[in-house]
Design brief:
374 residues; alpha/beta; 2 domains; two-stranded parallel ribbon; binds S-adenosyl-L-homocysteine; binds iron/sulfur cluster
Length: 374
């Protein structure tokens, strides 16, 4: 059964033409799916009967099975989706006054294995398909509209900062980004779709050529010796190469800076001397620095930097003229904050049983959008 969420618009056009139908039918179908959140071909009222008949039984708009929906006191919403094989991925919605951001996962687990990341500790299970990446946005957007009782767009920003290393799932990522940007899809601006990477240098170059969106790079250390320990991928792509790739990326990027993420770990990477070294390191790259207070999880053995240390670190950067922000921790009461994703399936032995128990216990209501669905 073909999952229509797997296609970007050019892919859907090719598929629909392969069925002997015209291009504009693919555009109609794409709009029904992404703009209206419709998955039942029979309800796509202006879609030719001939195409509906061909899709019937051969294609589907496949949602990810929802395991849970949790809302935080601050409005953050976390969804846990079953991706089979006792794996689950998480998607987080972060409302802000002016806009809504969706944090999307790209893999079940992650192979990079960063010391401070709960997903990294979980290990790598598998890449998500394009359809599974898109399904997170498809579901969240239409779910939020349903909750708001409105047809207005809810998600203006997508950040590929959920579980997984997006640039290690490049083939699935690029068509998913294309759906997000497409005017017939979600119509998001390139500046408002961010790929966050731990530094897969060759893929940063490919993204620059294929589909440059906003880029965030997870730095976490001002020197190779420390970064080798925190982000093992650094042994393959050391800092000098990574920063050179960032500079090349900026030739084509929709924004004129790269965002560097830096997770603040008590006594590990948070001294004023390290801040000064960081200033020297990024001197030649137009950038913003985003300091992320470490969100602890039991197996990490690491601690969050005290607030004063974060502020002192930020001051050094700011004094050097680098725009620096300290990320607000959102949704930590529901373990939806950065690096806390994956908690639910950490215990792999019992994960399958727990997933099926959750499925029974948590009432899951079908999503309905503008009366388009049950
Ligand atoms: N793999 C990509 C994107 C997913 S991680 C990457 O590493 O960039 C998204 C962000 O969350 C990264 O900047 C990562 O360093 C940060 N992060 C991971 N674990 C964290 C934790 N425990 N506390 C705070 N931030 C964390
Ligand atoms: Fe993977 Fe990113 Fe976590 Fe590192 S921080 S283990 S790259 S998800």
């Amino acid at each position: 059964m073909t999952d229509l969420l797997d296609f970007d618009l050019p892919g859907l056009v090719a598929h629909v033409e392969g069925l002997g139908e015209k291009r504009f039918r693919a555009v109609q179908l794409f709009r029904w799916i992404h703009q209206r959140g419709e998955s039942d071909f029979e309800r796509m009222s202006d879609l030719a009967k001939s195409l509906r008949a061909k899709l019937h039984g051969a294609a589907t708009v496949r949602p990810l099975p929802l395991l849970s929906e949790q809302a935080s006191a601050d409005g953050t919403i976390k969804w846990l989706f079953d991706v089979g094989g006792a794996n689950a991925v998480e998607t987080v919605y972060i409302p802000e006054t002016e806009r809504g951001t969706l944090c999307v996962s790209s893999q079940a687990g992650c192979a990079v294995g960063c010391r401070f990341c709960s997903t990294g500790h979980q290990g790598f299970s598998r890449n998500l398909t394009t359809g599974e990446i898109v399904a997170q946005l498809w579901f969240a957007e239409h779910r939020l509209r349903q909750r708001a009782g409105s047809a207005e767009r809810c998600i203006d920003n997508v950040v590929m900062m959920g579980m997984g290393e997006p640039l290690q799932n490049y083939a699935a990522l690029v068509p998913a980004l294309s759906v997000m940007l497409d005017d017939h899809g979600y119509g998001l601006s390139r500046r408002r779709v961010t790929v966050s990477t731990s530094g897969v240098v060759p893929m940063i170059d490919r993204l620059r050529d294929d589909l440059p969106v906003a880029l965030a790079v997870s730095l976490h250390a001002p020197d190779d010796e420390l970064r080798d320990r925190l982000v093992p991928l650094n042994r393959k792509y050391p800092l000098a190469e990574l920063l050179a790739a960032c500079r090349r990326y900026l030739d084509r990027a929709p924004r004129d800076f790269v965002t560097f993420e830096y997770c603040m770990l008590d006594g590990v990477n948070d001294s004023p001397a390290q801040a000064a070294e960081l200033v020297r390191l990024v001197r030649d790259v137009p950038c913003k620095l985003n300091l992320i207070p470490f969100n602890p999880f039991p197996a990490s053995g690491l601690k969050r930097s005290p607030r004063e240390a974060v502020m002192a670190f930020a001051q050094v950067l700011q004094d050097a003229g680098i725009v620096t922000t300290v990320r607000k921790t959102r949704g930590d009461d529901i373990a939806a904050a950065c690096g806390q994703l994956a908690g639910e399936v950490q215990d792999r032995t019992n994960a399958r049983e727990r997933l099926s128990r959750q499925r029974r216990e948590i009432p899951i209501h079908p999503v309905a959008t503008e009366g388009a669905r049950p």
